[in-house]
Known about the structure:
The chain is an alpha/beta fold. The chain has helices at 16-23, 76-88, 93-96, 108-121, 133-141, 156-173, 184-194, 202-211, 243-250, 283-292, 310-320, 384-397, and strands at 3-8, 29-32, 41-45, 48-52, 65-68, 73-74, 97-100, 104-105, 198-200, 216-219, 257-265, 268-270, 304-306, 308-309, 324-328, 338-347, 350-352, 363-371, 401-405, 413-415.
Amino acid sequence: MSVSILLGLQWGDEGKGKVVDVLGDQYQVVARFQGGPNAGHTLYIQGEKHVLHQIPSGIFRPGVQNVIGNGVVANPIVLMEEIRKLEAKGVDVRTHLLISNRCHVILPTHLHLDAMSEAQKGDRKIGSTLRGISPTYQDKYGRCGLRMGDLLSPQFEAKLKAVLDAHDALLRRGGFEYNRAEGEDRFREAVSILKTYQILDTELYLHQALREGKNILAEGAQGTLLDIEFGAYPYVTSSSTTAGGACTGLGIPPNRVDKVYGVFKAYCTRVGSGPFPTELDNALGESIRQAGGEFGATTGRPRRTGWLDLPALRYACDLNGVTDLVMTKADVLGGMEAVKVCTEYKVRGKLQTHPPFDIEDSVELIYEQFPGWPAFSERDAMPSSFQRYLAYLEQALDRKITYVSLGPGREQIVKVSE
């Protein structure tokens, strides 16, 4: 009868999908509230790897209803492929997936607009995944987009043509060469298939679920430091990745939220362009990248790696009202002689414990060094040096760490506090 929110506290790729899957048996509903196919939530179940882009990570839990909320932008072609892969594995998607009729649709031309925009930026490109996310949100806020509910409308063809004509004019004005017919057959095939699934007012479904005493887990994508409002603008994503975004992205009232899980890695990673103060652009960073398998689940791009950034993490905790912290990939740092944590920034000679407005300013980083810890795989074998490290983080962040993940598998997560 309450809502929990689970989201990332860094630049994405924190392991949110795995944690949602682990916690999924405590909830009757799992609902994605923002982002789109730029997400890549990776789950390992009984040794098999699954990557979800738009479908919530509760889909593998029997009896759990999964919702793609109104705050998501969905690519019908990618969604169709995801559904086919899941159904081939025996997952009953037709029964256990609901799609918001207010969810905006990514058209093939949105991908071309994304590519044109990045090309026009030159050296200042954002590092987009080129999945058409930004142009689709631009249409949404420009009040000229196409929504999933429109797929069921008798005026669908006219609405689709109006959007495609507008995109065509933009692409021609920008001198971008493309084939308008390219991808159209697959798009129409995907639309005809998705129309047979459950597209409805998911906000009404969620309200009724709460009345019936069901627990809902709201699943975020990307991370807080990529939030359109509070990230290092303009190197951000196009949606609200914070707890506030969960309410608007699902239509749930804030007073029903009683828990916010904040997921973070024991170190930091970032993919694409943008400021990364604690980045390790050296052999040590490469070593962490290889040990952690830090390559994008959606694009395959190598992720940049760096030390844990406490000012940024504290800022993310405060923005979201985090009640429970979940640390992932603690195993990746196992075996290192020492581990560093950035504790403060010095900006124009002054110490501060939160990120500056313009992170590209000259920032000096203040680090604290901790003894490393040997590899371990269960709570009872947790080294004392690691326990001291956790205690330090809990004090610095003024929040408890509830779970620690020690590997990619569902069973490789331990509860360290109530």
